């Protein structure tokens, strides 16, 4: 039965609504901008870091995912990362910059092939894949029980690290490599693993150091990957997580950057190889390529702008060890740790979307 409200009830409700509105308005300081959405006041960076962070380049579009919430808050910067940011700012305050940092949004640079929102830079000499057909065929592996160890994350160049804070410059005082796993690409792997696990995917994160001596790092990581694959037959995917280092000159660095949901992120590049020329014994390269295309699409569907074009090249690295092995370059050495952490979480979610499409 439809209830009919009395005149007194209607008047009382109106008065309460008016009093609530007056109270809310009284709590906003004079001259303060009113937030246009609930997310407008969720920034976790401190005032000093916000003041020193360089403004986004006009070439960096802001994107909105429009996706359902995840068990992991992608945009929340961990407290320890914020502390490292403050320590870096204190260090920079007394340091002379070595050079400037140029933010670049990689979208079509070097692209040879495009299928919808999937862009590829084909750097091979003879391979001319039908990327549309490969993408249409799908690249997700069949996984019987994703809760078992399914993804192996490792870091051949384990000590690759990031800037602590964004100031528009880079400094000699802060090394681009670190043995601290909370400052290097290892931390990105940790965040990536956490998102996969939150989505029900079993992960092994190998944090062993392979680049104490740079030469031979791939051979050393290969030995470990082979042992993991032997000990855990359920492993299907291997990800070697790195970061790039790109410079215009000794005093001008390039920082691959996107803005996703109002927050800066380190753009990610997927590297996938091909059996060509001197690269032999890589029979499953096309399966890897299909997997790379599927992951690229999943990431761009959910987080537009996050990904640089897929780099398809005459390389093998250790990607021949399973049919679903990729190398990820998460940002560059002049991206900040906070930006890389954010991106690590997002690519983790995109990978979960590929591996568990029904979840």
Polypeptide structure, described:
With 359 residues, the protein is α/β, with parallel strands linked by helices. The chain has a single domain, classed as Aminopeptidase (3-Layer(aba) Sandwich), CATH 3.40.630. The protein starts with 6 loop residues before the first helix and ends with a helix. The strands form 2 sheets. The chain has an 8-stranded mixed β-sheet, sandwiched between helices. Strands 1, 2, 6, 9, 10 and 11 form a 6-stranded mixed β-sheet that branches. The protein is globular and about 55 Å long. Helix 7 (285-302) packs across helix 8 (337-355). Residues 1-58 and 63-69 have low confidence and may be disordered. Helices cover 32% and strands 21% of the residues. A hairpin with a 2-residue loop joins strand 10 and strand 11 (263-266).
Helix-strand blueprint:
Blueprint (H helix, E strand, L loop, with lengths): L6 H20 L20 H6 L9 E2 L15 H15 L3 E8 L8 E3 L2 E5 L8 H7 L11 E6 L14 E3 L13 H14 L3 E4 L11 H15 L5 E8 L1 E4 L2 E9 L2 E4 L1 E6 L11 H18 L7 E4 L10 E9 L4 H19 L4
Parallel strand pairs: 1-10, 2-10, 4-13, 5-7, 5-8, 8-14, 12-13
Antiparallel strand pairs: 2-6, 3-4, 9-10, 10-11, 12-14
Helix pairs in contact: 4-7, 5-8, 7-8
Give a quick set of tags describing it.
single chain, 359 residues, alpha/beta, eight-stranded mixed β-sheet, six-stranded mixed β-sheet, 14 strands, disordered N terminus
